Amino acid sequence: MLVTLVCLAIIAYGFWNIISSYIGEYSGIGTLYPAANALMVVFSFVAVSGVWSMEKWGPVSFVIVVVLKLIIDAVFGHFNPLFLLGFIPAAYFLLLLPKMRMTE
Q: In whole angstroms, what is the distance from residue 92 CA to residue 104 CA?
């Protein structure tokens, strides 16, 4: 049940992040950062779907997406230390890794 709640929270935050990157504070900086940000959110949706279906590739890909998102934010000058909180669900997902199955 906790996995479902965490995944739903990440998906809700992702939708909010995509919308705010185009109409919010980042809307006036061009199209490259909002597009890269949206791409990372879409990749996180894919990773969360892997976690939600209890596939082993889900937690690993989620960690990769969190790191790439931090790198993109740093490159474009929009690094926010609060985005480091993404490692909390990533660590939780990695703790569940032994319970997950390999995709055949």
A: 24
Q: How far is 50 from 58, CA to CA, in rounded Å?
A: 4
Residue 26 sits at φ, ψ, to 5 deg, of: -95, 5
Confidence (pTM): 0.80
Q: Could you tell me the residue range of the domain that residue 8 belongs to?
A: 2-99
Quickly tell me which residue has 């790191």 as its tokens. Answer: 67
Cα separation, 7 vs 93, whole angstroms: 10
Residue 56, C-beta contacts closer than 8 angstroms, at least 6 positions apart: 97, 100, 101, 102, 103
Q: Is the pLDDT of residue 68 over 90?
A: yes
Residues 6+ apart with CB under 8 A from 50: 57, 58, 59, 61, 62
Residues in CB range of 27: below 8 A, 6 or more apart: 21, 34
Is residue 104 assigned to a domain? no
In a domain, 62, yes or no: yes
